[in-house]
Amino acid sequence: MIPRLLPFLLLAFALTLTAELRDIHILQTADVHTQLRPTTHGTGGLLAAATVIRQARERLSPDRTLLIDCGDTTQGTIAATLSRGQVGLLPLKLLGYDVWVPGNHEFDYGIDTFLDFMRQTSDIALCANLTVRGQPPFRPWTLLTRNGLKIAVIGLTSSYMRNWLLPADAQSLTIHNHRTLLPKLLADIRTHQPDAIILAAHQGWVPNTDTRGVNDIEDIASRFPEIALVLGAHTHRDFPGTTIGHRTWYLQPPPHANAVAHATLTIDTDAHRVVSVTSQLLPVPRNTPHDPELEQALLPFIRQEQHERQRLLVASLAQAIPSRGIPGTSCATSELIATAIAQATGAAVVFHGKLSNHELPAGKLHGHDLHRLLPYDNAIVTATLTLDDIQTILNEQLKWRRHYSFNGIYGATATLNPATGQATLTGLGKTGTLPPDTTNAQRLLVAFNAHAAAGSGRFTALRAILAQPQANTTQLNLSTRQAVENFLAKHPNLTLTPFPWLQ
Ligand SMILES: [Zn+2]
Question: Does residue 241 fall inside a structural domain?
């Protein structure tokens, strides 16, 4: 027996000896949100992260390293607003990113600007699961060679995108469900015999608590185990590496370039198979030197931002406007925003919340203060609605009263029945009463910000009401921030006591 088996054993031994294991490295950023300088914690920021990226790439060897960004790359700072996102695209080119996957905030300047971003990055952008009406599909995946290995990278943006856009914009997007899309893509990818398949997504792994179904990662990992590594984003959580699904490795860096994610794939070159994945988050500590080349290239954006931060808006605001309390009842900042929107649009009723926890200080107000109060480039949306519509919207909002996305009512009074949690409109204007016909021949102009109006999958009744033709829903060419700036310029002596609309 033994002599007859020996040749086979020797052969197997020899095969084991020749099976070569090779490593490739993935460096990943996500949710940078154009944060160039360190955050308020003193860490992170892309200028410092660029130094970490370049050092890691040199140490690991550029021939063995891929650099990938998973989106929310063009929005989040004054520099982004002023350049309409361009400040976020420049580092992708300058640092030589191999792959870029767009995030939901890449739509904040409108679909045409999003398309422009995709054109500017057409050599590296991947987006398999979203197409825009009248446009050719984006590149869904790519095959990159490093260290003699073929690495397939699939790019997915947020599949929830339509819920964050107004119906008029959402209609022009088609989202391709991963359950039907990925089998086709993977079949195509297999014909190229890759050594590893990676998914780069602007979605996060949210086990069990993702009640709206915003993120598909858990489902993807359990259905498509041939994906060895998922690079996640969007949730602003960080994962230095964990197994999800059956055997998929999941990695996600924190937002604002507070760390760079680094995965090492060890690949059996004979079997074209990933043998192991390890990963870590490379910190971007306080006092990391800025990358001089990136800083030089971004200087025009940095100067513009500094100028805007220091721009004087109000010489002396009479009183601080705090952000404590609940919008629509006791929060001064949401009262300010709603009042400014009402004045800018002539709306009788405004639904608005607060978009940050920052307050406006008394005294000199600068561009910096306004951007902290209103960090998003939200446009104002108006619609003509009946009192029934307004009451329905108010009651839907009340379900989210403790949530950051809650919008209080301004311009109408209502009483809340604590037993049922339902509100009933009782008047219009600060001392007003309701018209006798409360079932509505009359329509009122009502205003929102575009993000609330889109519904986010939470405000489905609001979205349905705004989608009715008679609502005449219109997105204005005016941002919430501009409306507030205009209002403050006119009312520097403002003393703001929130009016308790909801009683
Ligand atoms: Zn996002």
Answer: yes
